């Protein structure tokens, strides 16, 4: 098969190459002036030749927009490679698979796999969020499609793909988190993304060089050996306000940077040149730190702006270390994974001490864990009795009362939504169907801020922050570094998860530490 992704693939594999990508954000409509501006900018970037690919978002911010494959096909014809954002928020697994076949046929094989922003108001109100798969599921499915003879799922009789589909799979990670629980869970999920087949990683946007350095150190220390691109985002004043107010999920503008940008905004150009120079400094520092490349973006940029940033960065890179103090914007109480090296403004190799509370053996978690060990582990004292009882009752008129009894208990204890495919034991006895706005089984997403869910800020804590804090006293938080919870089996909806467990029909019968478990014959 012809390698249509050679430019980007080869650049990422070349240790001497600093890969550059640029992000395009299409909006509503296919024939607007903004779309025409984006297309013209793409033409200029393609002709310039310094960028290895153009990245196209999919319904960014949760708003409906021109589909990325439409714009991507046009850009491919210009001679530039494309990275299509594959978002989980608006598609179920079948629709996702169908789109991937189409994208492959159009040679759109570079992907950035993301959970996606929670859907915003559209036609006649708010749409239903889908999130049928999470990013780990999507990566696992893509990895299966990459295998020769497994272009479709093998446990479904649809025939075989004759050749492999060479998807290049990118993912995102955010080192710019306030709390230990948020930050460490981002890193733990990165382990699972790499295990699921991620080929490269792009950081979330941020303005703290020490955090950029921290992620690089963590990946090297933990042998997460995939290329990493640093995010160089150039906001305008409107976007700065949105970020500062917490209205862009996962994006943080610290007070110190916000005040500086406000001061710069009093100049004749409203601080635009200052923001471009700051971006050039960050680009130079990323190259000096040892990043494999940079992912550049920002609203309403023209080609002259981009050329200025690239040209200035080339002049600055030889003295990149002197620029670090100008790019050290972080909230004063943010958690860092490593201790600070004061001379360089970066990090030492010593991990920050993470205090561990004394475990409580009378907590909701410890009680739930004890019940699971006794009744749902094969060596448990009541396992045989509970299994025999549930399966026997399920074959009689007591089937309904059994399901009702289970549901009432689990509603009271866990907020159960009766999915029939229970994952409580794997997620610190927190229910992702009721606790996570995106129903993520292999979370977290990147949208939380200061421990709050992106959808319910100030009202609902991120489920995975709660899970980390719940497991840490027992020394069990590292379980989130590995493992795979398969996607929810909707055929089990509104059935007894106890019966499904004992019959070997739920996620426990599929889940192990090997990925592609759902696609085995």
What can you tell me about this protein's structure?
- The chain is an alpha/beta fold and 521 residues long.
- The protein has two domains: 6-351, TIM Barrel, CATH 3.20.20.220; 364-519, no CATH class.
- The protein is 38% helix and 10% strand.
- The chain has 17 helices and ten strands.
- An eight-stranded parallel barrel has the order 1-2-3-4-5-6-7-8, surrounded by six helices. Strands 9-10 form a two-stranded antiparallel ribbon.
- A hairpin with a 4-residue loop joins strand 9 and strand 10 (346-351).
- Helix 10 packs across helix 11 (303-316).
- The two termini are 26 Å apart.
What is shown here, in short?
The chain has two domains: 6-351, Alpha-Beta Barrel (TIM Barrel); 364-519, no CATH class. Helix content is 38%, strand content 10%.
Essential attributes:
2 domains, TIM Barrel, 38% helix, globular, eight-stranded parallel β-barrel, alpha/beta, two-stranded antiparallel ribbon, 521 residues
Structural topology:
Blueprint: H1 6-13, E1 19-24, H2 33-48, E2 53-56, H3 68-77, E3 82-87, H4 93-105, E4 110-114, H5 135-146, E5 168-173, H6 180-195, E6 200-203, H7 209-221, E7 228-233, H8 237-244, H9 255-264, H10 272-289, E8 293-297, H11 303-316, E9 338-341, E10 346-351, H12 364-376, H13 383-394, H14 399-414, H15 432-435, H16 463-471, H17 497-502
Parallel strand pairs: 1-2, 1-8, 2-3, 3-4, 4-5, 5-6, 6-7, 7-8
Antiparallel strand pairs: 9-10
